[in-house]
């Protein structure tokens, strides 16, 4: 596989222990993305990792809402919010990157979801869709015009990162076999539809190599 152009960045989303088998919010077969990501990363000049990084008692945790069950919905000031099992708590083993993930090539790690009262699926904006993480500015300063995205989970953090990348004017390619989905109540098919409607290209790692 030849090197990608210098204006293309690789964004690796939330490949963390808690999202992999055995973790607190495991995505089925989530660890299967690791070899795909590791194979692709050396071909990009700019590589960015995101890391879910919640304080204990985060507002998106079902445990903080009496009577709520994980994966139920609630209303937050910024809109509807899925209530999750406690996961990716700052400094815990579950918040660490998967041990086989090659993190050495990353020039930047974006930690998200660290504000106690607001979740953050996207690498670019928190869930109010207005509070920036700073990633857009970083990529602009690096001359990036196209992002290739892989990671976890396809139908949440990858989806919102892809949509927000389009929102800030970037071309976006999502590596389908470099992602896995939670698929909560049909969220996988809905995510695929939303990406395509937004002009996101969804393809496989082999197609990228070609």
Attribute tags:
210 residues, Rossmann fold, two-stranded antiparallel ribbon, globular
Report on this model:
Pathway: Cofactor biosynthesis; nicotinate biosynthesis; nicotinate from nicotinamide: step 1/1. This is Nicotinamidase. InterPro entries: Isochorismatase-like_dom (IPR000868), Isochorismatase-like_sf (IPR036380), Isochorismatase_Nicotinamidase (IPR052347). GO terms for molecular function: metal ion binding; nicotinamidase activity. With about 210 residues, the protein is of the alpha/beta class. The chain has one domain (about 10-55, about 85-210): 3-Layer(aba) Sandwich (Rossmann fold). The protein is built from five helices and eight strands. The protein has helices at about 35-40, 135-140, 155-165, 185-195, 205-210, and strands at about 10-15, 45-50, 75, 80, 110, 145-150, 170-180, 200-205. The strands form two sheets. A six-stranded parallel β-sheet has the order 5-2-1-6-7-8. Strand 3 (about 75) and strand 4 form a beta hairpin. Helix 3 packs parallel to helix 4 (about 185-195). The model has no long low-confidence stretch (mean pLDDT about 95).
Write a concise synopsis of the structure shown.
GO terms for molecular function: metal ion binding; nicotinamidase activity. Keywords: Hydrolase, Metal-binding, Pyridine nucleotide biosynthesis. The chain is built from 5 helices and 8 strands.
The second-level CATH architecture is: 3-Layer(aba) Sandwich
Shape: globular
Number of distinct helices: 5
Biggest pleated sheet: 6 strands, parallel
Q: What is the total domain count?
A: 1
CATH homology group:
Isochorismatase-like
């Amino acid at each position: 596989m030849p090197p990608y152009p210098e204006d293309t960045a690789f964004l690796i989303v939330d490949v963390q222990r808690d999202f992999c088998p055995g973790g607190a919010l495991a995505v089925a077969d989530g660890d299967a993305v690791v070899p795909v990501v590791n194979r692709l990363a050396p071909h990009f000049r700019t590589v960015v990792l995101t890391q879910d990084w919640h304080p204990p008692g985060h507002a998106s945790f079902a445990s903080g809402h009496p009577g709520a069950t994980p994966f139920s919905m609630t209303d937050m000031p910024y809109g509807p919010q899925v209530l999750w099992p406690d996961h990716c708590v700052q400094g815990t083993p579950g918040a660490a990157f998967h041990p086989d993930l090659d993190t050495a090539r990353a020039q930047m790690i974006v930690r998200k979801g660290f504000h106690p009262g607001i979740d953050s699926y996207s690498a670019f904006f928190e869930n109010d869709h207005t509070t920036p993480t700073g990633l857009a500015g970083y990529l602009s300063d690096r001359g990036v015009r196209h992002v290739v995205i892989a990671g976890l989970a396809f139908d949440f953090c990858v989806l919102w990162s892809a949509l927000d990348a389009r929102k800030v004017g970037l071309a976006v390619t999502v590596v389908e076999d470099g992602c896995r989905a939670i698929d909560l109540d049909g969220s996988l098919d809905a995510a695929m539809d939303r990406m395509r409607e937004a002009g996101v290209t969804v393809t496989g790692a082999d197609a990228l190599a070609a």
